[in-house]
Amino acid sequence: MSVQFDFDNIPPCRNRSSLKWDAADRFFGGKDLLPLWIADMDFPAAPGIVEQLHQRADTQWFGYGMLSPEYYQTVISWMEHRHNARIEREWVLFTPGVVPALHFAVQTVCKLGDEVLVPSPVYGPFYKAVESQGCTAVPCPLAHDGLRYSFDFEEMERRITPATKALMLCSPHNPVGRVWTADELAQTARFCIEHNLVAIVDEIHHDLVFKQHTFYLNAAPEIADRCIVCTAPSKTFNIAGIQAANTIIPGEKLRVAYRKTMARNHAFSANSFVEAAVVGAYGHSEAWLDALLPYLKGNIDLFCSVIDADFPALKVRAPEGTYLVWIDCRSLGKTNDELKAFFADRCGLALNAGGEYGLEGEGFARVNMACTRATVQECLNRLGRGCR
Asked: Torsion-angle region of residue 41: left (phi > 0), alpha (psi -120 to 50) or beta?
């Protein structure tokens, strides 16, 4: 008998110290906005996670701790079972989130003034992870045929210099929703090897896919010595506030250097609830995820079909992965700030304007579909009133 999960009937989202819900009006300058911006889900955490957290709280002990062998075995088993990826214990480094892991990666492979290639548009903290280290993020526009994105290797070739030390990838890609094929990923690996670059790969959304996803090292095992792959259960299971991620580095020399970077940042310690949350997620909540994915796909299909049918000024393509839909609003002729204000003031919606993801995102918007079906319908209703 299959376990049933109800994603339509959830507790109220406001007044629970949620940045997504309780700060939207302040950030967007509106009132009673429907927040579809930050990549949080509106759904409560899976019961398997909550149960493990309750058990941890019941110990009544929250001093300095350490992650157990069970923690690492749970991560390893999930990667093998869910991603056909065979990783070794020593490859896995706990980090307090994927964004800190990206910062550590840049600190490890770059020195002041170095450059990192960043296919764009891409998740905004990529740029900050590079620039906050005194380095230069070099945007490399993804090829775009009007709806579908792909890597532009000729442009990447033109933008590389002797100062370029790494290529930072998002797989699956936020915000454009591509799940890169194994061939595409292998081509990026060959590019890195040819130009002596380290591949820094953010796979935070790799469980949230609607087609076959390939773990980066499976696509390109030859790059193992020059590859840093950042993974986490945070987006998959809506536990970003726990601040738990697992960075996979098979190359010993690179891994030792990364550990030294973490030590300089005093970033070894996990909080008291990390192990319970991660074991609860990977070890006890797969059925919840298997029920969630078709629900998310239903939200996405509903949203995209209505946009295609009723909003000729907007263009959209259903994402292959993530729960984020990338809308082409360029025909509206608005700047990034104007677009953000249009959705907030005219439509009552808090959406991420595309300029947050680089110049190549100007004129686009990102909308979060990890919500109830009723919320998706309300978003469409507000869009309809605002656009009319």
From this structure: beta
